[in-house]
Amino acid sequence: MTSISIAQPSNSKAAQRKRLTIKWTGIAALVTLAALAIFVLLPLVEVVSRALADKDGNFVGISNFITYFQSPSLVNSLFNTLSIGLMVTFFVVTLAFSYAYALTHTRMPFKGFFRALAMLPIFAPSLLPAIALVYLFGNQGILKEWLFGASIYGPIGIVIGMTFWIFPHAFMIIYTALQQNDGRLYEAATSCKAGFWHTFYSVTLSNARYGLLSAVFVSFTLAVTDFGVAKVIGGQYDVLATDIYKQVIGQQNFAMGSVVGVVLLLPALFSFAADRWVQKKQQSTLNAKSTPFTPEKSWLTSGVALATTSLITITLLTIVGMAVYASFIKFWPYNLSFSLNNYQFDLMDGGGWESYFNSLKMATLTAMIGTVFIFVTAWLNERCQTNAIMRQAVDFLSMIPMAVPGMVLGLAYIFFFNQPNNPLNFMYGTLLILAVSSIAHFYTVCHLSFKTAFKQIDKEFDQVALSVNRSRWDMLVKLYIPLSMPAISSVFLYLFVNAMTTVSAVVFLYASDTALASVAVLNMDDAGDIAPAAAMATLIMVTCLAAKAVHWLIFDVLIIGRQTWRTAGA
After folding, report:
1. pTM above 0.90, yes or no
2. Neighbours of 251 (CB within 10 A)
3. Torsion, CA 132, CA 134, CA 135, CA 139, rounded to 10
4. Which domains are seen in the chain, by residue range?
5. Alpha-carbon gap, residue 120 to 171, rounded angstroms
6. Residues 109-130: pLDDT tens digits?
7. How would you class 406 by CB atoms within 10 Å of its CB: exposed for 0-12, middle for 13-18, buried for 19 or more?
8. Which ranges constitute the DSSP H helices of 388-514?
9. Four-point Cα dihedral 252, 515, 38, 279, nearest 10
10. What letter does residue 555 receive in the DSSP assignment?
11. For residue 126, how far is the Cα from the chain centroid?
């Protein structure tokens, strides 16, 4: 008996579709990896190579570094930077911990109000507190007697200004760490009749130690790499960030600027590596058997907490309020009548109103392009990438920007994109390169946010979708985007606000027709137009606050709020 076999078509539609999906996701993953290499890694390689060459581009090895460490003024800047970083870190972490502890471990009233105000400095450029301190404690400041003859122009001003600007960054980390408390541990401490300080040390600090260490490293990194505060109120007190600016802008010494950039990169890399090590050591403090921690009622602790948070909040509001008030004063301190003259930016040096609208365009470009690119890259790497080496390469390149100071990244972009033989040279001097540099500068936080969002989505969704012949692109549009909308909205706002307020990442890259508002603040301050500089800084802050309000209305209310499945059964 002869058996007859019927040949099955080897190229069914489902198989073809699967192969096509694998092909295009693989190509997309390669493109994103190449983009990260081009916009993150290669510019930094160029900085290092320039540090090892002379002004003519000839290789000279470490001779530039020898020259650097033989220059007392430059070496002094290194010690100044490290000392400022340590002082600012101490004050920031102490204040942020006190503030966060009051909100999480007491029953003080108005917690939501104080938590919202703690985030206010994030919406202002780092130049704003420096300008406000000039009006408060400068030579003609209203509170200059409070310094008992000391000058605000120098380490005192830098420490106060940076403490204001970095405070919310440390607060967010510590607040999150203190929230993750198991109520059973406090019940056990009470049962053992442990005193307040013993419980505080053994339970509270023990649970929050990794958050505290992370806040320390983040605060130190931001302090040693910030440019705006030191530039405005540093006076003759040099730090590494201002040294780079002087070497590149003042002396056109790109080789020495690269050397300073590499030196500045070292403490940032050390802090970043230490933070990553701490995060790997961190373990979960909550489990399924944990109970929520509820602070005990105590008028004394609530009163002390309210007084502490009120004092810190009043200080924050005083600095912001002083900058806003000064922006409306006609002629400080001789004519204190209100006027809008300081907002006539077209009559001032710095870029005029065009710089403000340039910032709006650039921030919008940064938020739109950055959100889409980072989301797709993280999705491809987290859910579509099967090659372990490529996946690790993307993760590695995505983490680099967090350890790179904005000044170094801006300098790297000059060297890399300003070469005539670079195919991407057409970007130089445009708003596009300003947007790309901002995306690269703030890339890491956004990448981690999306990775966290994807990890919260069960992979069974993918298996079910693939079993019914849905492509990964269908899943991207119909599954991952809706489920990740909170993360998408947060990243969009994060990129917009940081693009509006950043100075260090763009100060080397703007052209005459692409000046930005944050750079205009710096230029007006250099020209002696301090009141208009305060006005522009105020306008930036108001714009960021307005963006937050619009973001809340569009994303939280109209989009996420209409996804009824999020609250179903709640």
Report:
1. no
2. 10
3. 170
4. 65-283+296-327 (1.10.3720.10)
5. 12
6. 999 899 999 999 999 998 999 9
7. buried
8. 388-399, 406-417, 431-441, 443-455, 460-467, 472-475, 481-483, 485-501
9. 100
10. I
11. 12
